[in-house]
Every structure is written in C-alpha cells, then in structure tokens.
Amino acid sequence: MSSSRSDRGGTVTEPTDGVLRPSDHADSAAPPDGGDDITQPRLGPVGWMRWGWRQLTSMRTALVLLLLLAIAAVPGSIVPQRSADPNGVTQYFTDNPDLAPVLDKLSMFDVYTSPWFSAIYILLFISLIGCVLPRTKHHWKALRSQPPRTPARLGRLDDHRDVTVPVPEGQDAAAVAAAAVETAAAQLKKSGYRVARYDGRGTFSVSAERGYLRETGNLVFHAALVGVLIAVGVGGGFTYTGQRVLVEGQAFANSLLDYSSFNPGRFVSGDTLTPYSMTLDKFDVNYVAPGQPGGGQAGDFVAHMTTQAPGGSPQDGEIRVNHPLDVQGDRVYLLGNGYAPTVTIRNAQGEEVFHDSVAFLPQDANMTSLGVIKVADGMPEQLGLIGFFYPTMNVLDSGALTSTYGALEYPVLTLRVYAGDLGIDDGTPRSVYTLDPSNMTQLAGGDSGTPAIRLMPGETQDLPNGLGTITFDNAAPAGASGYDGSVKRFVSLSIHRDLAGPWVLAFALLALFGLLAALFVPRRRMWVKATPRAGAVHVEYAGLARGEDPTLAAAVDQLVDKHRGSLPAESAPAESAYTDPSRPDTGKVD
Fold it and tell me: Is the pTM of this model over 0.70?
C-alpha cells in the first residue's frame, strides 16, 4: 500500500517502505497521467536519417555486410557466369531447362553485376568510409595531443615498481629527483615513446606513451579495404577477357571481330582495344614414352608466337602453362591445345567447296578428339560431318576405335556424314563445335548402312551418294618421314587485360601490413615519478596497457633495470607493487 500527499504543488508518493519518491519515478505506484508505458521522444525525418547513418557506419554493420558479400559471392562459384563461361551458361540451360530461367531472373548467371550484389557492395563501401573517416579524425587529434598526466597514486596500477635512492652529501634531493626524471624521459623517448613532463608540488614525473601505430595500422587496414573496393569497382570497368583458338600458322589481330568470345568491362569498346597482332608459329608438346613412369602423359607445353605492334618490328615470344605472354599490356594465357586436321572437300564437279584446318576437341588423356565440319555451300545439300581423330589409333576388343598415345604414331580420322539443313540460315547462333542432325539425313556411319569414312594423312575417299570427295591433307613438309608434323596443332588462348590487378595487389599488401601492426604492436603507457624525501629520493615506475599485453610487466622491469644505472647507489629496493595504506583497493587507471 502507498499513500500520496501534495508537496509544493507536486505529488509525492509514499510507498509502504517509507521512502518518498516523486510521482513520476519508475518505482512509483502509477504515472501521474495514469498510463502504463514509457514513451520515448519521437524522431523526426532528420532524426531517423541520423539514426540510420549511425547504424550503417557502425563497425558491426560493416562486418555483417562483409559476411553478406562473401555469402553472396558463393553462387558465382557454383553456377557458371556469363562473363567467364558463356558456353557453360548455354549448356546449363540445355541441361536444366526448368531451373535455368528461374536462376536467370535472379541474376545467378551474372552474380557480380546483379543489383543485389551491387547493393551489398555499395553499402559496404559507404559503411567502411563512414567508419574510417571519423576514426581518422579522432586518431589525428590523439597523435597531436600530449600523453596523459601522471596518476596521483601509481601504486594502484598492477605493474608498479619503486626504489629508494640515497642522495649524496652536498646535493639537493629535488635536483637529484629532477635529474632522474629527465634521464628517464630521454631513455623512454629513445625507446620510441612520446613523452611529456608533469612536475607538481614536490614531485617530478614523466608520462610516456607508445603504440599509436596500432590504431594507425587498424585505420590503414580499413582504408585499404576501401581501396580494394574502389580498384575492383572502377578497374573492373576497364578490364576485358577474350578467348581465341589459333591453329599453327594462323594470325590474330586484337579486334572484336577476331575474338571467339569477348567479355568487356562497362567502359571497354572496340575503339579502346590496343592494336597488335600475333601468330602461332608452332606448338611443341612432349609426351612421356610408354613403359616409363607416367607413360603417355604430356610433359612441357610451349606455344611459339610472333607478335607485332603498329610501327614496330616482329617479336618472338613463348607461352607456357602458368607463364603468360605480355603483349602491349595484355596477358595471353595458354588454356588448352589439340589437333587440327586439315580437310579438303570437293563436289562432284571437282570444285573445292571446303578447305580448312578444323580444331578437334580432346576427349581423353590420349587425345582422342571430336570435331565437326560444316559445308554450307557448293553441294546439292548442306553437309555436316562429325569426326573423331585418333593420334595413335587402336582397336578395342569391342571393335570400337580409340587412341592409346597422345603423339602422332598412327593417326586416323573417321567421319560420319549428314546431309540436310544445318540450321544456320535462320540467324540462330550455332556453335562450330556441335552439330544438330535433327533436320538432316545420315549418309555414312552409324545406322545409315554405309560405313563411316576412315582416312589417314594424305588419303582421299569418295563421299556417299556421289557427292564428291574428301581429303585428309598431309601437312608434313616435303621430304619429312613418318607422321610427325602431318597434322597441325591448335591452342586455346585467353587474352586478358586487368588494370585493377596491380592496384588490388597493392591495397591487399597495405591491408596485410596494417593488420599485422594492429595485431602485434602493443599500446601502452609508462610513468616515472620521483619524490624527494629526507636524504633520499623515492622513484616509482608504472605501466598500463590498453587491452591485453602480456609483455607489459617485462617492459616495466626492463625500464627499471635500464634507469637504475643512471641513479646513485640505491637502498631498500621494493620489487613488489607499491600499495597506498590509505587506499587498500587497487585498480587500473587510465
């Protein structure tokens, strides 16, 4: 029970415990207006904006956004991306016709340019800047300020030492105390401390501080993260990646028309490409001989290139695995290689309707390769040929053909022939490495009743139905023996320009150094205080760390040992922490 009485126009509640409280106190029986809830002040639009900004620029929000960014990048490593693997995206649509459209609407095939990924990226960028700028301003003020004053009772600190030094006859105790503190200040300054003298009534002291590099490293780390974001965001717009397949003897010019596939940044156009050309002169590959450890495996890959810039002389270069070739700021990487048989097709009148070196894609480690030849004109009907190339052909027990070695020991080319519509006249893009025979009639191989065409280098055979002839050209130079060099090689090249790469590396290294400084540089304060007494000087040493510093006690001991050498012969050393009898409670002060 409680009662109320009026006090100078106000209401005072008197509870049963006898303690008088104002009527609006939290422990009152009831608020004066009879309500039960505590109403917080209302926030206007500016107040809500200020509250939102503080939430966004808090370190907790930055860490959450960084975690979300890492999680959002996971689909980019699971689902093929159009920017890196357009053929993989096409194949994914073929293999998953129901799921792929849903993922496409969610921008799963363009994760790193999607609106939701960009939103996280931009919010993280703003959050980091909002965190770094105020802390940098505060840190700059701290760097320019003096170390804090010496605490009145150093004995309250855990890491405390004191000694009593006798004053030689004829010397003033105050002068000895001042000299001792001056010497301590010089020693601390030499050890990298910022020092400040604080002399009071009958006492002399120096306050020293070090470890601001810790906070500097922390700020450098976060600023470097901002730099990485800027480098990736801005530099990525000037980055491009393209792929090109080159057969021996074939040239490439750095223009949009010469790329097999091209993925430009948003600021890249055909006019911004650096002009140059390169030619694949020869591709060398060594195979481990059968019977030896790792027999049949490929050893060293070397693509011999000739590059030329406008107005310059031709330059020789080599491309190896993980050793790209630098050409006018572009880096050319070796992605793959294979055989490119040269095939000539003539119609029934003997006119040449097709002649090219066709890249056959390897299907196994022994270079059994699959390729497609398309003849769009010059025949009564369009022709499509699906072929297998075997560098070293062998017949399995089942009667199927295979290659048992990657080098050219017994090369054989087999072809299935189809006639009909290739599906290229309706404007629909078609891959040169696949053939859709749904609207074609099989003339040779398979269930057609006519054996598949089998050719060796230099041989010619008739096409079915009197359509003409096909020749597997021998590319070996005149007078060459065996099959070495009878079939051209091709290489798959990736041409990449990344202006952001050096900047990202620089900022990443800067972030690493900043993180190391933030983790391993201790932040501590030291004090030395000398108090003159009758015939002696009482010298105190104390240290205080900001955070955990297991080496602080050793640092204080080292300071004591170093400083003792400059003092007169001491007496009555007190190694234990000093305790003020009037203040039995101890604790750290800052």
Answer: no
